[in-house]
Amino acid sequence: MKNWLKEGIQPTVVLVDPPRKGLTESFIKASSQTGADRIAYISCNVATMARDIKLYQELGYELQKVQPVDLFPQIHHVECVALLVRAD
């Protein structure tokens, strides 16, 4: 992500699907600095997803939609997909 910023690449959408521990604060800051209009966030851990979404909100994004997806009905884990939109 930092290389994208150095090279002037400006995506309109950033798609993230982090491990259970979530995103790092430095990645969240870097991805928000790209100027992307939307961030699609896929997660298997709602606690770290909520933590990361809060940071995105502090950096100018609004949570527009969250949708749980039961990809593995035989187990208790549920994936969640969220759409964040730049508030500017």
UniProtKB/TrEMBL annotation:
Q: Which Pfam families match?
A: tRNA_U5-meth_tr
UniProt: S-adenosyl-L-methionine binding residues:
D17
Q: Where is the active site?
A: C44
| The keyword S-adenosyl-L-methionine belongs to this UniProt entry's keyword annotation | yes
Give one GO term, molecular function aspect.
Answer: rRNA (uridine-C5-)-methyltransferase activity
Q: Extract the Gene3D superfamilies matched here.
A: Vaccinia Virus protein VP39 (3.40.50.150)
Which SUPFAM superfamilies does the annotation name? S-adenosyl-L-methionine-dependent methyltransferases (SSF53335)
Q: Which UniProt keywords apply?
A: Methyltransferase, S-adenosyl-L-methionine, Transferase
Which biological process terms from the Gene Ontology are attached to this UniProt entry? rRNA base methylation
Write out the similarity annotation. Answer: Belongs to the class I-like SAM-binding methyltransferase superfamily. RNA M5U methyltransferase family.
**Name this polypeptide is given:** 23S rRNA methyltransferase
Q: Which organism is it from?
A: Streptococcus oralis subsp. tigurinus 2426
